[in-house]
Amino acid sequence: MSSINRTLRRRIALAGVVAAGSLLLAACGNDDGMDGMDHGSDSTAAASEEPGKDAGASADFNDADVAFAQGMIPHHQQAIEMSELAETRASDAEIKKLAGQIKKAQGPEIKTLQGWLKSWGKPTEADSGMDHSEHGGMGGMGGMDGMMSEQDMKDLAAAKGAKFDRAFAEMMIEHHNGAITMAEDEKKNGRSADAKKMADAIIKGQSAEVDQFEKILDRI
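^ DUF305 domain-containing protein, sequence as received from the core. Prediction below:
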């Protein structure tokens, strides 16, 4: 009897070991499955975070985005050129303040626009088929919305005091309205979320400045 009992005990013990091993393997299998799901969630979260860092303007764009960036660069450059004239020629304090705001805001935007075009593999200048150097630099792009002609820029540079203030306000209203039109086109036809966001900021910011310039013209 004792021999049989010992045999039975060994078999029960062996069965217990096998059962325990099976449970352990099952547990490991479940852990692996959970790990897989955890990593998948982490990867998805990381992937969703990455595009927001830098890829917004570069990952998804169309021809309208490119045209907006290529056109807004020289448009901003001319606004800065006009604003720099105000530093030494304007007599009105509010004109000088607005000119400073324009220069401060549009300089960084130019760098952003150039960065987008580079990431898109596009030139920073549109191929207009003409040599801008023959037309007085930025002043020669009078065909673009709100852009001043070469003669406009010469006349502005020749003016001083109250005459400059009025000319600057009138020209900047026209210039800003041109930029607003370009930005509205981008919001309607563009694809890049970042470019459309800048367009929205241009519309809001420059519309407010147009209102300020109009009020200045009413009092000078």
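The mean pLDDT is 78.
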